[in-house]
Amino acid sequence: MSDTQQSTTGAQRPASYGADEPYEVPSRSRPTAWVGVVLFGGIMMEMVGGFQLIQGFVALFKDDYYLVSPNGLVIEVNYTAWGWTHLLLGVVAIVTGIGVMLGKMWARVLGIVIAVVSALVNIAFLSAYPIWSTIIIAMDVLVIYALAVHGRETGQA
User: Which residues touch 7 (CB under 8 Å, ≥6 apart)?
Assistant: First the structure.
């Protein structure tokens, strides 16, 4: 006789169970280690928000810091408008990162949307400061990946 027996539902049951004892297939009720990836995404979201805030304050208060004039950007808008855009994205990203770390579904969805918008804004801002914008875009990609994979388990953690 083998170590397992076939139940009426098709699930394998350990041989120690009697033929007439009910056997339920164990469900995965505990979160796996992938919850750490979502936590990583929340922390990265907060970092992206902080970087966006820094970039926004620089655009507002020291616009001569950038490599090109506003006319050299993909979207010709003055640096004050860019500064407010980055500040708004930064604040929303930080609040969303906190929500992600608390396991909120709305925060995961909004976090992916904010990361996509942040990446697009930084692509448009790329000529102003290429290295800084490239770093933020790379972090946005990591946030999207982290929030899109195994995020459902954070509500159980």
Answer: 13, 23
